[in-house]
Amino acid sequence: MLMNDHLTHHRAQMIVYLRLKDVQPPKYVGW
């Protein structure tokens, strides 16, 4: 469970970064 939350946190950071760069982030399943 802790690992899942950790990975989700990093994916969320990546999506925010991509959006700031005007890049369409990939769709993630399971959110």
What is this entry, summarized?
By secondary structure, this protein is an all-alpha fold.
Defining key terms:
single chain; 31 residues; mainly alpha; 1 helix
Structure description:
Helix content is 61%, strand content 0%. With 31 residues, the chain is mainly alpha-helical. The chain has one domain.
CA-CA gap between termini: 14 Å
Tell me the major beta sheet.
none
- Structural class, please? mainly alpha
Q: List the total number of helices.
A: 1
Fraction of residues in helices? 55-70%
Please mark out the parts with pLDDT under 50 across 5 or more consecutive residues, or reply none. Answer: none
User: How many independent structural domains?
Assistant: 1
Q: What radius of gyration results from the CA coordinates?
A: 10 Å
The count of β-strands is 0
**Average predicted confidence as pLDDT:** 75
Strand residue content: under 5%
General shape: elongated
Order of helices and strands: H
